[in-house]
Hints:
By secondary structure, the protein is mainly alpha-helical.
Amino acid sequence: MALLRRVIPSLVSISTNNPTCITHVHHPQLTVGEAKSNSKISMVCESLRRGLNWDALNKRFGSLEFSESFVSRVLLELKKPVDAKRALGFFHWSAQCKNLEHGVASYCITIHILVGAHLLMDARSLLESTLKKNARSRFLVVDSLLSSYKITGSNPHVFDLLVQTYSKLRMFEIGFDVCCYLEEHGFSLSLTSFNTLLHFVQKSDNYPLVWKIYEHMIRVRKCPNEVSVNVMISALCKEGALQKFVDMLDRIHEKRCSPVVIVNTCMIFRMLEEGRLEQGMLILKRLLQKNMILDTISYSLIAYAKVKYGTLDSAWEVYEEMLNRGFHPNAFVYTLFIGAHCGGGRIEEANKLMQDMENAGFMPYDETFNLLIAGCSKAGRLEEGLRFCERMMERGLVPSCWAFNLLMAGNLCESGVVKKANKMLTLLIDKGFVPDEITYSNLIASYGKLGEIQQVLKLYYEMEYRSLSPGLLVFESLIRGLCQCGELEKVEKCLRIMKDRSITISACVYETLINSYFEKGDESRASQLYNEMVSTGLKPSCACVFHP
């Protein structure tokens, strides 16, 4: 407003040669300084309109002092589209010939004028310049554009250009914050601006921000078009998540879904995974109203949310409502409830649901079996878990690494199934299963407890052969097994390998070694290891039987 009050006098035409006109003007009379300033502004504008070149302008106004306020007032006098190129010429001339470093206000007034005259390349160039100069001030440029919006008679396209420029400068986070800030101030960006932002963010592999922007579009009712959806599909491909959601929707809908349904399902699923239930349901309702997601998918996602964060009873109510409304059950929902029963240790109920699923004509898939294997592992039903692994292989599937590792983490030696588990691992590897360090560590630990040192070493060398470099977890299990068998020479070799590979020796390893040497009567080596342990900053626990 202060700038507006200073500018208004320069926009009022007052003829000093007509006293009668002066007596009827209701504005306060200008001071001598203001009148001189207005006269100089008029002279500059007149010279620019006459087409004087920079040399002529220098001769005429070389001794004139230019301030930021003076420049802004000249620019406002040239705000009409017909004068836009003159305004741009004055902006550059005053910077180069008058050694004036323009502030953000002068930049923004000029940008408004250029956008109003459709000189978009010039406007974008100035935007890039001021955004780079003021990169640390998140809202400085947008605030200046907002404050000079009305006095320049600008249009909303200037804000589209602003966000698009942020996108091209790879200033994504600020660009999105400015987008939300503009919404708060009553300015909604065009779909083109959102798509530009999505495109450049997706190219930068910033997937969380891509989904944040897309979600914001839905929230502010900016309906995505084919370009938007294609960008999101590209993001899903690069994340390696597209096949997961295509498969999920195939199990729910039993038909291939359109790209927009795939994208919207992924968005809601992500929100539910993050625990944003209320927001997820609000967006889901909006998608349903716009026919951007299918009813069967919506019910399945609601059931998923109820299973994950609510109770099994409330989830079952949603499922029954789904059936009462004429929707068919699907493999995805069956698997949800199987997982819920397994998580609660109700293996019999999970098995019954699995049978119902197959009787209804739905094929259990990898996730169904993984949940059952994990449930059996937690319930101590290890042999039953191994049978599910066998059933998977019969169908051309292999369990996930986390499910099989849970099975391996069970008390294999006491239940007498360690050999079956090892044989199963061999068969699974032949079918394409890729074990990890935890897989081998669990088996090594089990064989170590049984005292089968040859099997322990065989598994260790198998890891090396498969280029699975053993880490601390494996060495802990290996050293514990070797110590139990009294193979201290092999233990020392393991220690040397760990040190050569810069693997930090844990307190657990030190205490196992110290206790083993102490029990063997080698107090000297036990003392040496004790001192080495303390020197690394580790404190022996009460499990350490040796104290020098």
